[in-house]
């Protein structure tokens, strides 16, 4: 009995140890962040275009801090920027007090900062506080200097990039290339710090400022449309990428129902007319494709809609040839998501495209893919716009209609940038433009409207004129040959007429 009694506690030891290990693990899980907002990009998305998710010159936050490929000069510049930001006056006591207040405030944010990251942060409290203080001061000083330079040049952002004032030993802030690289890096999903860190530091350093951190940040990034940036914005942002998401892609406005009722199967007559005219339309499109092939342009689309459920069934050129008018809103519309279809016209607000637009879109989409609480607005917008632009001619058409406003980027570069933007992206159920898509697709399949027939005939007439020009008037000699042949035809006709109807003896 004694022997067995001694063995029973020993037998319990492994079980007790296992239970305790399980409890300890559960405690770690309970303490883990549940409202994280800064994620690492999934490998499937990263493999599509890795450069779009990796910083080029500067690391922000803990994820890329030890990246050896980043520019060493920027690491040194961070410390200079922090010194410049904290030394607001020549009074050493005030500067030291500013440093004390900022460091204390950041140090106390440790728990909140860690909850913002989806990955476990391996740095201790002191190291993480250093990262937040250093990166936060660097970002604020960069935003403030950029804003002041733009004000001196009366809002001319391109010239401001060349006159950003700073210490002569900080060439980064005077380099146009470096500013563009910083704009790219600060909009990356993995290269973020909590927005609350920036607000906390800014309120200490600039307690009487009349412009908010959010406004300074939006002023620094390249604009995506002509939306006005107010001096004061709310502070309900998780980080800089979330700020871009909420400012340019707010919650979608419910689509207004189309003013036109589109009957589809009212009668056999309408069915026959629809099939006949639609077949004619497709022949015109096919013929257009063949003419583009002969002129050296690719007749193959860059990509289909990307998903059977999302996007239009027709690209921009096909929509126009099917009787849909493409235009920007009659009144200035600052919401990119206000895409509407009414009375045969598709209204799309202007989108400004530059060399960093593709990277920003990819990171916004990755943010939506990871964040269940985020709306699906950017992903929906990307699907819709990608379905419109499948040929270089689509890009030119939208550019003529001022729907796309390219800045230092051509149609082929646009197609290359956005060709894979939706690869490995999971299409959720909440497509923001389902109503508009259905209205446009149904309108294109029905030929029962006088307005549509007029547009179709006008487009076809203009197309025939273009084909005639491309065939007979592409050079001076072809024009002379055509005129000579036409004159010969007239003279021959006159000779034949007078030979038949001339005076008879």
List the SSEs and their pairings.
Blueprint: H1 2-31, H2 43-48, H3 72-86, H4 92-107, H5 110-116, H6 125-152, H7 157-160, H8 176-185, H9 195-205, H10 213-220, H11 240-248, H12 268-294, H13 316-321, E1 325-327, E2 340-342, E3 345-347, E4 351-353, H14 357-370, H15 377-388, H16 392-400, E5 404-406, H17 411-418, H18 434-445, H19 450-472, H20 476-501
Parallel strand pairs: 1-3, 4-5
Antiparallel strand pairs: 2-3
Helix pairs in contact: 3-6, 4-6, 4-9, 6-9, 6-10, 11-14, 12-19, 14-15, 16-17
Transmembrane segments: 477-500
Keywords: Membrane, Transmembrane, Transmembrane helix
InterPro entries: DUF247_pln
Keywords, separated by commas or semicolons:
505 residues; mainly alpha; 3 domains; three-stranded mixed beta sheet; two-stranded parallel sheet; 20 helices; 56% helix; 3% strand; elongated
Brief rundown of the structure:
The protein is an all-alpha fold and 505 residues long. The protein is 56% helix and 3% strand.
Number of domains: 3
Q: Tally of extended strands?
A: 5
Structural class, by secondary structure, is mainly alpha
Mean pLDDT across residues: 80
Strand order of the largest sheet: 1-3-2
Task: Please report the distance between the alpha carbons of the first and last residues.
Answer: 153 Å
Q: Radius of gyration, Cα only, in angstroms? A: 31 Å
Shape: elongated
Query: Into which percentage range does the β-strand content fall?
Result: under 5%
Q: Unreliable stretches, pLDDT < 50, 5 or more residues?
A: 159-163, 165-169, 255-299, 303-307
Q: Biggest β-sheet, characterized?
A: 3 strands, mixed
SSE series: HHHHHHHHHHHHHEEEEHHHEHHHH
Enumerate how many helices there are, as a single number: 20
Helix content: 55-70%
